[in-house]
Each structure stands twice: as C-alpha cells, then as structure tokens.
Amino acid sequence: MKPLPLALQFHSISILLVIFATFVGLSCGRDTVTPTRPLADNDTLISPGGDFALGFFTPAASSNNRYLGLWYHKIPRRTILWVANRDSPVAGSTGLLSITSTGVLTIADGRNASNVVWSASPAAGLASPVARLLDTGNLVVTEDDGGDESGTSTSYAWQGFDHPTDSMLPGMKVGVDQRSGLNSTVASWKSDDDPSPGTVHASMDPRGNPELYIYSGSKKIWRTGAWNGVRFSGSPDSLTYQGGFSFSFVNDGDETTYSYVISNKSIVSRLVLREADAVVQRTVWLWESSEWSVFWYAPKDPCDRYAACGPYGACDPNSSPLCGCLVPEPAFAPRNPGNWALRDGSQGCARRTALDCRNGTDGFVTVGNLKLPESENSAVDTGLDLVGCRAKCLMNCSCTAYAAANISGVGAGAGA
Ligand SMILES: *[C@@H]1O[C@H](CO)[C@@H](O)[C@H](O)[C@H]1NC(C)=O
Ligand SMILES: *[C@@H]1O[C@H](CO)[C@@H](O)[C@H](O)[C@H]1NC(C)=O
Ligand SMILES: *[C@@H]1O[C@H](CO)[C@@H](O)[C@H](O)[C@H]1NC(C)=O
Ligand SMILES: *[C@@H]1O[C@H](CO)[C@@H](O)[C@H](O)[C@H]1NC(C)=O
Ligand SMILES: *[C@@H]1O[C@H](CO)[C@@H](O)[C@H](O)[C@H]1NC(C)=O
Ligand SMILES: *[C@@H]1O[C@H](CO)[C@@H](O)[C@H](O)[C@H]1NC(C)=O
Ligand SMILES: *[C@@H]1O[C@H](CO)[C@@H](O)[C@H](O)[C@H]1NC(C)=O
C-alpha cells in the first residue's frame, strides 16, 4: 500500500488532536447546579480539582433505586462517601437534582419532576442560588455572587457536610453546634444495597468532658474517652499516625465538634461506620495496589467494649482475668463476687471504706494508663491547674476524682 500523501497525514493528526481536546473538555465536567441547569441522571458534577464526583447511582444490581451520591473521581473503585436521599430513593426510575429559585435543593423523578422524593431548604431564601460541589467533597448552597468559590467560607446557606452519611471526610465535623442546634451524627448503611441508616451510629455527648460514642441500636458499644487536648483518652494509638493527619476538637460553648484534616493531598482516607461488624474504620487508598486498606479501627480489644468492667472497674487486655478494681481491696471489692469469679465483670466494684469527706482525712490514689471514666456529670474548669483541681474536689463531698482535662501545656483540671 502506498503511503498517504504528507498533507493528508498532517490533516489526520489535527483531527486526532481536536477529538482529544474535546474529550478532555468533557471529562472536566461542571461543578454547579443552578435553577436553569439541573443535574440529570446521566450527568455528574466534578469538583474543580477533580477529586470528587456527585451523581446518581444504584447501590446493587438487585435494586433499581436511584440515589444522589458522592464518590472519589480519581479512584477506580467507586466508593460512595455521602448520600443525599439515603432514606428516600427515586424508585425504579431516573433521578433529577434541581435547585429552586429560592435555593431549595430537590431530588425528583427524572420522568416526572413534580414527584419530589427529597428536599433540603436553607434557613432563609436566596436571591440567586447555586449548588456547588467543592474540592472538599462538600455540596453547598450559596448565593451565586461570583464571590467565594474557594471552599474556605464556613457560612453556607446549606451544606451536605452538616448531614454526614456513614463516612467522615476531612473537614467534616461530627458533634453539636449550640448556636444552630445542629447535631451531626454518622450512621452505617443498613446493608450493601441499602444506604438508609443501619443500627450502628456515632454521636457526640457534649455534657461534662465531651466524648464521642458509638451505638448499636440504643446500646452504647464504644466511647472514645474524653479529648485530653491532644487525642481522645481512649485512643492512644492515634498518636502513632505519621504526618499528614491533624485532629481537632472544639468545645468552646459555640460548638462541641470533632474533625480532622489531611494536609498531604496524596493521602485519601476516610472514617467509616460499618454495619456488619459494628466498627469504625479508618481506611486509606493504596495507589500502587489500587485497593483500600484498614489503617485503624475501633473497638479493638475486649477492654474497648463499653463498660467492660463496670463502675470502679479497670480493664487490662494483657491480664487474666481482664477485670480488676480501680483501687485494690480492701478499699474496693467486686460488687457481685459470684459473677466476678465467673469472669463477668460488668457489675464492677464497690467502695468498701466510707469516705470521711468533711473531716479532712480523705486523700487520692493515682491511677494511670486508663481511659478517663464517663464524665457527663463532671465539671470542667479550664482555669484550674491540677493542684487547684485537687483542692476544689476535696472540698466537694460529691466529687470523688479529678484529672487533667488538657494534658498539653500545664494541664487544666476536671473533677467528677
Ligand atoms: C443525558 O440524556 C439526555 C436525554 O437523553 C441527553 O440530551 C443528554 O445529552 C445526556 N447528557 C449526557 C451528559 O450524556
Ligand atoms: C407525577 O408525580 C405526582 C406527584 O407524585 C403525581 O401526583 C402525578 O400523578 C405524577 N404524574 C404522572 C404522569 O405520573
Ligand atoms: C444527637 O443525635 C443522636 C442520634 O440521633 C442522639 O443519640 C443524641 O442524643 C443527639 N445528641 C444531642 C446533643 O442532641
Ligand atoms: C505524602 O504522602 C505520600 C504517600 O504516603 C508520601 O510518599 C509523600 O512523601 C508525602 N508527602 C509529604 C510532603 O509528606
Ligand atoms: C467525722 O468524724 C466524726 C468523729 O470521728 C464522725 O463521727 C463523723 O461521722 C465523721 N464525719 C464524716 C462525714 O465522715
Ligand atoms: C490545652 O492547652 C494548650 C497549652 O496550654 C492550649 O494551647 C490549648 O488551647 C488547650 N486546649 C484546650 C481545648 O483548652
Ligand atoms: C460538686 O461536685 C459536683 C460533681 O462534680 C458538681 O456537680 C457540683 O456543682 C459541685 N459543687 C460545688 C459547690 O462546686
């Protein structure tokens, strides 16, 4: 066969270039939904940096329910991170995401837009609303004033990050906002093909010295232990995290929240609650082997089990039996010696010597290497050091123990 004339060869190269440019243009996608441009079932929003995609999906072949979900755009294995309409799928049809002229987000049946299955309304109506997928994966509703598009603003008319599904992404907060009354919780998917809330959920108890709990139904199964200024007192292993992750706990009267950020852009990680084994897992994506890896999880050992050794009990996973009393006999003794002998420590220990309180003969015993006890009834005074905290606790007959609430720096106190 004769070689093609030079001009024609050159021509085919330019056609290839044009096709390539068009392809790149399409894959960039758009990141906004406006009242005049809804998102159809066959379309996706892509965050400006290309890390996240938002679109409709069906969780399992057995179902034809459509959900609006968020996933990592650059990771070949589709991993759903957030679901808008987890309780209310579009049944057996195609979905449509729209925003009304006042900023109400709606998900409707794509073939009958008046069949709205889900909606989210900002507190106040907007003049020129836009829904935007940010680089963090947060879907936000804001005024389309051409202003802040950086994703750094914290005041959005509505944001998906206020309503986590089963995953905590970097920048998402779990906890309570006392100003707005918002209570952000996380709940597992009911099953692999049903994103509606399962039995495993996590929420913040903002009372006393606040901490996060994981529940299975109404039963507490794990608690993080109070934040001690550096980490949760019940998760010492979080200190083994190498660079990249930073954790934040805010308890300033305006909010009681936990969040984390990852400064290294090549680390892709989330915390996820799993229904099947009732655990919280931190997974990381391994780019080389193209798979998810479990980086951390809880609960881990038998002592992580909520109240494993009951009140005044202390659990040591390296000892047999696991349970001991916080202070050994004769000061404390097992509350139910029969069960204790059968290695059921759940009823804990009881004080055997009465407190003298006002007569000034009481003192304290130091017990170390323990998760702080549940502290919803404790009082935190960040203005006190440990010596001041001890004195205040000694003067109060209903105060039985004290500890540093913040171990970084000098250590401010908490009493119970
Ligand atoms: C989605 O489907 C509609 C109607 O079938 C079509 O007009 C549109 O081009 C499609 N959009 C994409 C991004 O495929
Ligand atoms: C569209 O949905 C609305 C609301 O559910 C319903 O009342 C109406 O009958 C539907 N129309 C059609 C053509 O199915
Ligand atoms: C937050 O919601 C969770 C789950 O519904 C609930 O268990 C918890 O008590 C709530 N916390 C507050 C402070 O309202
Ligand atoms: C970011 O993480 C990657 C993968 O773990 C690592 O190779 C790289 O050195 C890290 N970069 C920085 C600045 O820490
Ligand atoms: C204080 O000491 C007195 C005399 O020893 C005793 O009777 C009293 O019960 C003590 N008070 C308390 C609160 O233990
Ligand atoms: C804990 O103490 C450190 C050092 O004194 C201080 O910088 C930090 O703000 C404190 N944290 C809290 C939550 O009070
Ligand atoms: C005594 O301690 C209890 C429990 O920590 C606390 O609720 C109470 O306010 C304290 N009373 C005084 C007078 O400080």
How would you describe this protein?
The protein is mainly beta and about 425 residues long. It has 3 domains: about 270 residues, Agglutinin, subunit A; about 45 residues, no CATH class; about 55 residues, no CATH class. Helices cover about 10% and strands about 40% of the residues. The strands form 9 sheets. A 4-stranded antiparallel sheet has the order 1-10-11-12, with no helix packed on it. A 4-stranded antiparallel sheet has the order 2-7-8-9, with no helix packed on it. Strand 23 and strand 24 form a beta hairpin. The longest helix has 23 residues. It is elongated and about 75 Å long. The N terminus is likely disordered. The chain binds 2-acetamido-2-deoxy-beta-D-glucopyranose (7 copies). One 2-acetamido-2-deoxy-beta-D-glucopyranose binds next to loops.
